[in-house]
Amino acid sequence: MTVSLNDRNRIVITGVGLTAPNGNSLSEFRAALLAGKSGVVPFETRYIGGVLAGVCDFDELKYQKRKERRRGTRAGSIAVYCANEAVSDSQLDWSHVARDRVGVYLGITEHGNVETENEIFEISKFGYDTSVWSHHHNPRTVANNPAGEVTLNLKITGPHLTLGAACAAGNAGFIQGVQMLRLDEVDLAIVGGVSESIHTFGIFASFQSQGALARHDDPAKASRPFDIERNGIVVAEGGAICTLERLPDALARNAKIYGEIVGYAMNSDATDFVLPDARRQTECMQLALKRASIGPDEIDIVSSHATATEQGDIEECEALKAVFGDESNVAINNTKSYIGHAMGAAGALELLGNIPAFDDRLAHATINVDELDPRCGLRQIVLNTPRELERVDYILNNSFGMLGINSVLIVRRWVC
Q1: How far apart are CA 127 and CA 414, in angstroms?
Q2: Are the C-beta atoms of 390 and 407 separated by less than 8 Å?
């Protein structure tokens, strides 16, 4: 293939690593999505007791020693696992990679709550004597921790950032990596999102106080985006990390290419702390499409953000209708119905769960929809059973977050 200088601005995905409540690799995760397998289970959390959550079960010691794991955080451990899996999957000769030209950009929803809650609980046993407070607390709670733990583990000396972008953060990690590669700040970007949210009781308590914490007799049916009987969010943990490279670099080493990032956008609602705005979501999707130089009719799959909150689902459906209309053949699906809301990792996991559709041409379903809310009544929503498509060339991934932050990523199928 002839490669031009302009192709240095073309950014491709060459390695994937993930842990989700229903799978610890892309193949496991994809199989679970196509089979309708949920990862939501009963979970005990401090002060609240029994809740439902998406819980990951991966080997924390595959790439870390026990001492390193004890010193670090759950989010860091998730990030280390997923980053190593992505690097391994990329088949890079890591011993010859210039580590000062590698950047790590990971999205998070929040960080530090878990460690702070744990330390306060521990000192409460000693009359709140702060002399027993852990000296590891500060490096555990700084916002750059998850990405920083990756650099320590992989001996990366290039830049690292964690991007606090609420539940739009998974996409934000990808976008930052694309931009840094195009600016020639790095030659390899390790990107995505991570979340340890289930280990802080505060997030459960807050959603419970808002009346937005999901309950169901059957944990597997608790997360119900678009369903008339949905009753809130299932909190989940997880991680999804990819290696990004410039197209010429990937081709030069004959790398496996999962897809090309061709469009992205981020904007802000500027309307409310928690309530979404369909107008701004519409504009965000339209901007991403413009940057990708394609029309909405060329999108084959939309991975929706829908969290199973009433207004959130309705506002996104209004935005989707504004962009894609009633007659398009786009397939709209949702991954949170399987695993819950993995916060900072959500967007990245949801994108990766759809990437295999480039090859198998299947749009995985949104499960747990017994009765579609008429206000979310888009005929394009894939309900309960995967849909086979004639082609899958473009996937659009929506991720929206509190304080009105919106992100959209568009990935194109790679063809030599």
Answers
A1: 60
A2: no
C-alpha gyration radius of the chain? 20
Q: Is 341 part of the annotated catalytic residue set?
A: yes
Give 325's contacts (C-beta < 8 A, 6+ positions apart): 296
Element (H, E) at 370: none
Q: How confident is the model at residue 416 (pLDDT cuts 50, 70, 90)?
A: confident
First to last CA, the chain: 8
As assigned by CATH, the class of the 10-252 domain is: alpha beta
CATH number of 264-412: 3.40.47.10
Whole-number Å distance between alpha carbons of 94 and 394:
31
Given its phi and psi angles, is residue 238 left (phi above 0), alpha (psi -120 to 50 degrees) or beta? left
Express each pLDDT in 180-199 by its tens digit. 999 999 999 999 999 999 99
Whether 137 is a known active-site residue: answer no
- Do the domains spanning 10-252 and 264-412 agree at the CATH topology level? yes
Find the catalytic residue in 199, 305, 364, 376: 305
Q: Which of 56, 167, 317, 376 is catalytic?
A: 167
Q: Which of 242, 341, 364, 376 is catalytic?
A: 341
> Could you read off the pLDDT of 308-345 as tens digits, one per residue?
999 999 999 999 999 999 889 999 999 999 999 999 99
Where in the chain are the domains? 10-252, 264-412
pLDDT of residue 136: 96
199 catalytic, yes or no? no
Tokens 């499960």 belong to residue:
367
Q: Which two tokens stand for residue 45?
A: 């959390």
Residue-wise pLDDT for 84-118, tens only, equals 999 999 999 999 999 999 999 999 999 999 999 99
Q: In this structure, are residues 397 and 350 in contact, taking their beta carbons and an 8 Å threshold?
A: yes
